[in-house]
Each structure stands twice: as structure tokens, then as C-alpha cells.
Write a structure and sequence with these properties.
By secondary structure, the protein is α/β, with parallel strands linked by helices. It contains 17 helices and six strands. The chain folds into three domains: about 130 residues, HUPs (Rossmann fold, 3-Layer(aba) Sandwich); about 120 residues, Alpha Horseshoe (Serine Threonine Protein Phosphatase 5, Tetratricopeptide repeat); about 130 residues, DNA Cyclobutane Dipyrimidine Photolyase, subunit A, domain 3, CATH 1.10.579.10. The structure holds flavin-adenine dinucleotide.
């Protein structure tokens, strides 16, 4: 049998059950599709992937290519439309089955489902590999309407079994594909499972995990949070690898509220993954999962000012500058800028989610759109959305202005809109 293995957010050889299954066949082709749609702008003017994640992704692919090469395999990089590329490959009649790690968000499931419907003689298998639990442990008919209920229902269940990297992989098929080149840059974090494993080991060699609960809400600093999200998002690390190290740390240094809180946060990620699969395209809908349309709209000027860090709120501007320059901001900063866009600027939350998709290195469709829905009050928040008081947040999390100074956060006092409600230029008013 010959297998086509389609890489998605599972860019590693360790603890990769889908790859282990594919490794049992006589012949194997491993592909990663760079869908050209991610470089086009969407209706909000954002691209699906910006320069920061693109750099990180290429480094991750290059690292994986090396691991595969050591086991006699090749990573074939294909560019174009994912559905067309895979359809063309399957039409060659070389493959009897297609394997991938289970996808959770509707957009990546669309092309997969179309392939399944189109090629009825080929076996399609999805394997759980990017989550802590297997799909059969999740009750979709009675999917909990809040994170708390989800957590209580799942926390005593066993995690999915972890697997070791295969020593050898089946012979490779010859495909016409592109070479992976990664930019040489010192930009941090560096992509790839090697860098991910180094980071994991380093984090747990410090005392940061013992005080995580007290530091996790900080806006900046070293190890205030784990920094695992970039590696988890493209699968250079699996969540199982993270919890294994966490449990090892607890055995050596003791368990406390902080170490338990790391697992608690990983369960948020888990929740949004299954939430994404449960709600499908509703994850991207303005009215969210309950069909309630928020009282916000698309104000182009306000949205642009928000992305450029030119709002009346210095803390928001600093965070938006950091995001644009580095591709990452803390969880607290994400909450504050998201709340500002939705509540202060009254802009459609999807603009913000879309801009985050372009900028974030750790972009994960389920976590991103799920968290945005939560803040906009169209998702899984029983309290119906979150409104952060920016002055209070500034006092609490940046009392000495070090964060604002670092990222150039100054108040910009210019009209939020260049035209008024009747489309008149704002400058004309009162002249
Ligand atoms: C508007 C908004 C958008 C977001 N978009 C993303 C995204 O695209 N990708 C992403 O991975 N996270 C996203 N998050 C969640 C969270 O901000 C990041 O996971 C976190 O900041 C990453 O840093 P860390 O790894 O140091 O996190 P830590 O605080 O160390 O947490 C450990 C891990 O738990 C998970 N986690 C923590 N908080 C959350 C959360 N609220 N939701 C889901 N998982 C969580 C992550 O996998 C993280 O790596 C978003 C949050 C908000 C408010």
C-alpha cells in the first residue's frame, strides 16, 4: 500500500500518531501544502499569514525535513490551492490511502471533506495528534456551553497515548516539489521541533513554573508565561509532550497551584479545539455560535488606527506596536486590545481576529477565533462578553510605564473617524 501523508499542524516526528500509522505502509509520500490563499488579503484587508509566522513556519519545515531525511524520507513542499494540489496527486492512482492529523477548524476541514467525497475508493484516515484527548472522549451531542463545564467533564479522563518517533520510514515517492529554504535570522522564537524541545527543557529547568499563576498576567518580561504556544500552534510540540514535562517537573519539585494552572490553560486550548470542530463555520460568523449579532460595525479608519497603534489609549498602542513588530503579545495584552476594538471602538470583532491571524506567530484558528468570540460576547462566555477598563488595566499591569515606553505607546488624540455618520469629512465640522 502507498500512503499520502498530509502534514498540517503536526510538524514533528515525536509523539505524532498519524506519522506512526503512515510509517507502517510500504511506500509513503509526505507533503505540506502552502496554500497561496494565505497570502491574499481578505475582506477586512488582512492576509492569512504575515512575515513573522512565515519565517517561523519555514524554519519549522526545514527542521522537520532534516528529521525525515535521517529516516529516509523527504518533505515535499507544494504551493498552490490545497484542494487542487491534493486532487492532482490522488488522480495519479498511486495512493491507496491518505492520512493526516485530525483537523479542528472548518476551513482546514473543507478541502479534506471534499477529497473524501471525491475519492470514494481511497481510504482517508484522521488521527488525533494535536490534542490531549481523542475525539471519542468528547461528547459532541451535549457539548458543554462553557469552559468550566467542559473542564469538569473531562479532567478525570486519561490523555491520549503518546508515541515515540519511528526509527525508520518507508521509501519515498518521487514528487515534483519545492525545496524548503528558511531565512537565516536571529529573530526569536526560532521555529522547529528542536527549538521547541530546547525551549520546553529550558523552561522547566527554571523556577518559572512554580510561580506561573502569579506571573502569567504580566505584559512582558522573561518567562512570565510558558511561551509554548508558537510550537503548539504548528505542532512542533504536542500538548502531550508539554504535560509529560510538566508532570516530571511536579514529581521533582512538587505540585502547586501554579503548575496546575499550566494544565488549566492547556485545557483552554483543548476546549477551543473541540469547540472549533463542534461549531464548524460558526467559529467565523459575526453572530457567533448563538446567532446574536453584536452592535458593532466595520469602521475602516478606527480599525486601521487600532492596527497601527494610533488610538487614544497608550497601553493599546504599545501592545499593537509590539504585535506588529514581533508577531507576539501576552494573553493579557490580547484581551485588552480585543476588548478595546469591540467595546471602545465598536468595530466588528472579525476584523480583529483576522488581523491577529495575519500577525500572530502562534496563530491557531480555534484558539484565536474562539477567544475573539468570547470577548465579543458571541461565544462560550456565560457572562456574555468581556469589557476591560483600559485605565485600570494600565494601572495594574504597567504602573511604571515600562511596557508603554518599550513599545512606544503614546496617546494619539486625533478624530477616530475621518468622516462622520453622514460621510462628511470630520475636519469640516465646526469650520
Ligand atoms: C483575542 C485572543 C486571541 C488569541 N489567539 C490565540 C492564537 O491564535 N493562538 C494561541 O495559541 N492562543 C491564542 N490566544 C490565547 C493566549 O493568549 C495564548 O495562547 C498565550 O498568550 C500564549 O502564550 P504562552 O504560550 O506563554 O501561554 P501560557 O500562559 O503559558 O499558557 C500555556 C498554554 O496554554 C494555552 N492557552 C493559554 N491561554 C489560552 C487561551 N485563552 N485560549 C487557548 N489556549 C490558551 C496555550 O496553548 C499556551 O501555550 C488568544 C487569546 C486572546 C484573548
Amino acid at each position: 500500500m502507498t500512503t499520502l501523508y498530509v502534514l498540517t499542524d503536526d510538524l514533528r516526528i515525536d509523539d505524532n500518531p498519524a506519522l506512526n500509522l503512515a510509517a507502517r505502509d510500504e511506500k509513503l509520500a509526505v507533503i505540506y501544502c502552502i496554500d497561496d490563499a494565505v497570502f491574499k488579503t481578505d475582506r477586512f484587508g488582512c492576509r492569512g499569514m504575515g512575515q513573522h509566522r512565515w519565517r517561523f513556519l519555514r524554519q519549522s519545515l526545514q527542521d522537520l525535513n532534516q528529521d525525515l531525511a535521517e529516516r529516509g524520507q523527504v518533505l515535499h513542499l507544494l504551493e498552490g490551492d490545497t484542494l487542487t494540489l491534493s486532487t492532482d496527486l490522488l488522480r495519479t492512482d498511486q495512493f491507496s490511502r491518505v492520512i493526516r492529523t485530525r483537523g479542528h477548524d472548518h476551513r482546514t476541514n473543507l478541502w479534506w471533506n471534499q477529497l473524501v467525497a471525491r475519492f470514494v475508493d481511497i481510504e482517508f484516515i484522521e488521527v488525533d495528534g494535536s490534542t490531549l484527548f481523542d475525539q471519542e472522549q468528547i461528547q459532541f451531542e451535549t457539548f458543554p456551553d462553557s469552559f468550566s463545564k467542559f473542564r469538569k467533564g473531562i479532567e478525570d479522563r486519561p490523555f491520549r497515548h503518546s508515541v515515540s518517533a519511528p526509527n525508520q520510514l518507508p521509501g519515498s515517492l518521487d514528487l515534483d516539489s519545492r525545496l524548503i529554504t528558511a531565512p537565516t535570522s536571529d529573530a526569536s522564537p526560532r521555529g522547529g521541533s528542536l527549538a521547541g524541545k530546547d525551549h520546553l527543557t529550558h523552561y522547566f529547568s527554571t523556577e518559572a513554573a512554580c510561580v506561573y499563576k502569579e506571573t502569567r498576567n504580566a505584559l512582558h518580561g522573561e518567562h512570565y508565561s510558558t511561551g509554548f504556544s508558537t510550537y503548539l500552534a504548528n505542532g512542533s510540540l504536542s500538548p502531550i509532550q508539554v504535560v509529560q514535562q510538566l508532570f516530571q517537573y511536579e514529581r521533582e519539585f512538587g505540585k502547586n497551584e501554579s503548575t496546575q494552572w499550566i494544565l488549566f490553560e492547556l485545557l483552554w486550548r483543548e476546549f477551543f479545539r473541540w469547540y472549533g470542530l463542534r461549531y464548524g463555520d460558526l467559529l467565523f460568523e459575526f453572530a457567533g455560535i448563538n446567532g446574536q449579532r453584536p452592535l458593532t460595525s466595520f469602521y475602516r479608519d478606527r480599525f486601521i488606527k487600532w492596527t497601527e497603534g494610533r488610538t487614544p489609549w497608550p497601553l493599546v498602542n504599545a501592545a499593537m506596536n509590539e504585535l506588529r513588530e514581533t508577531g507576539l503579545i501576552s494573553n493579557r495584552a490580547r484581551q485588552i486590545v480585543a476588548s478595546c476594538l469591540v467595546n471602545e471602538l465598536e468595530v466588528d470583532w472579525r476584523c480583529g481576529a483576522s488581523y491577529f491571524a495575519e500577525q500572530l506567530i502562534d496563530y491557531d484558528a480555534c484558539s484565536n477565533w474562539g477567544n475573539w468570540q468570547y470577548i465579543a460576547g458571541v461565544g462560550a462566555d456565560p457572562r456574555g462578553g468581556r469589557h476591560f477598563n483600559i485605565d485600570k488595566q494600565t494601572e495594574l499591569f504597567d504602573p511604571d510605564a515600562s511596557y508603554r515606553n518599550r513599545w512606544g505607546g503614546a496617546a494619539v488624540n486625533e478624530p477616530l473617524d475621518s468622516v462622520d455618520y453622514y460621510d462628511w469629512p470630520v475636519e469640516r465640522i465646526g469650520t
